[in-house]
Design a protein that fits this description.
With 94 residues, this protein is α/β, with parallel strands linked by helices. The chain has four helices and three strands, in the order E-H-E-E-H-H-H. It has helices spanning 19-31, 63-71, 75-81, 88-91, and strands spanning 6-9, 37-41, 52-56. Helix 1 (19-31) links the parallel strand 1 (6-9) and strand 2.
Length: 94
């Protein structure tokens, strides 16, 4: 096995209690036992370990547009456009 570090890309990470955050946290904890791991996440207060480096990247959500669509009762259109969830706005900045 080489000594190269690993990169984990996850919009949510521990201490968030989303299923994705919990799974990513457990996976990185196991991987960090043998390798250096860099985590790219949206979570601001992400937990770090000895061999884990956390890089936090903020999403660029069109907050005003999303709020206007919700106020106009176009939530169904919003569900069709923003699939699977609002984490899609994190992909480009990451």
């Amino acid at each position: 096995m080489s000594d190269a570090g690993l990169l984990c890309v996850s919009p949510s990470f521990a201490p968030e209690t989303t299923p994705t955050g919990i799974r990513a946290g457990k996976l990185v904890a196991r991987l960090a036992e043998h390798r250096d791991v860099t985590v790219l996440t949206e979570t601001r207060e992400a937990r770090s370990h000895d061999r884990v480096r956390i890089c936090s990247v903020a999403a660029r959500r069109p907050i005003r547009l999303l709020a206007a669509l919700r106020r106009a009762r176009l939530s169904k259109l919003l569900e069709l456009l923003v699939w699977p969830d609002e984490s899609i706005f994190w992909v480009l900045p990451a």
